[in-house]
Amino acid sequence: MDITDGPRKGETFAMRQVSLFDTAGTRQMHILTTRRDLPAAEIRYRMGSRWRQENHYRYARIHFDLDSYDNYRATADDPDRMVPNPAKKPAYQQVENARRALARAETVSDAELLAAHSPQPGTSVVLTNQMIDTINAEVHTAETALAAHHAIPARLPLSRVSTVT
Q: How far is CA 57 from CA 31, 64, 68, in A?
């Protein structure tokens, strides 16, 4: 194809056409490209990807009202706006560990308390508060960890988040 206008008048450049037809023969698609290094399937795939992106932005423009902003100038953020607390997420793993530890500790505690309350026939056992506290120590530790997680607020004002992290 010869260029007829502009500073490159008289020069030529090669273009490639990839044509696609649907199985019913009712629709055709023609793609023009200067990429000669790609197979036709790759050109078709890339064009489809481009259309998916354009359809996404069209959907976003309609449903998310992207064009409603009158300018794109940065403005100061509201320091009183409530945002997720970044300290809550790492504490969640500790909570999961504490829940598992609590389940194990309650099982062990129940078995030990049952053994302490059920002595061999003909013998007697006196349970003291210290013995019961020793048996339940892991349960109390796990419950304390759960209570500590619940004490962490899920949301904080933005002004406090920047000082927390």
A: 21, 10, 14
